[in-house]
Amino acid sequence: MNRMKNKRAFSLMEILITVIILGILASFSIPQYAKSIDKSHERDIVTQLRAIHAANEVYRASANEYLQDGGSALNLSAINSNLNISIVPNGATYTYSSTSASSYQAQASWDGSTLRVTEGSLDNTNPCCVGGGCLISIGSC
After folding, report:
1. How many domains does the chain have?
2. Which tens digit of pLDDT belongs to each residue from 72-84?
3. Does residue 18 fall inside a structural domain?
4. What is the pLDDT of residues 32-61, one digit of tens each?
5. pTM
6. DSSP string over the chain
7. Domain contains 1
8. What backbone phi and psi angles, to 5 degrees, belong to 89?
9. CA pair distance 43, 17, nearest whole angstrom
């Protein structure tokens, strides 16, 4: 019996303080974790769009034109099969459209955000540098 009196347990106050400290730590770490997940998905999507761009440049080198969409935007499975690549969707929606043999747009949408790669031929509305200053100058470049 004497041994039982010498054993101590945590008091209610000690447990309460521990729970409060853990709650404070969680309130700071959980939002940071969510932000790091979002940044990770964004980096993944950028990498996938770069892969589409690189594969389309290889396609253009052999066919003398960018991949054509046939009048309707291509989804990821069509992009993968036509450009001979293997992009995994990872929760993003990928589309590809082409307005001519010399231009295209690849787009990835995820959780309300959209990233685009646009490739096109130069024209009079593209930014240009004249006399040391860069500006959009229609017709003077």
Report:
1. 1
2. 888 889 999 989 9
3. yes
4. 888 888 888 888 888 998 999 999 989 998
5. 0.65
6. -HHHHH-----HHHHHHHHHHHHHHHHHHHHHHHHHHHHHHHHHHHHHHHHHHHHHHHHHHHHSSPPP-TTS-B-HHHHHHHHT-----TT-EEEEEEEETTEEEEEEEETTEEEEEEE----TTSEEEETTEEEE-TT--
7. no
8. -60, -35
9. 39
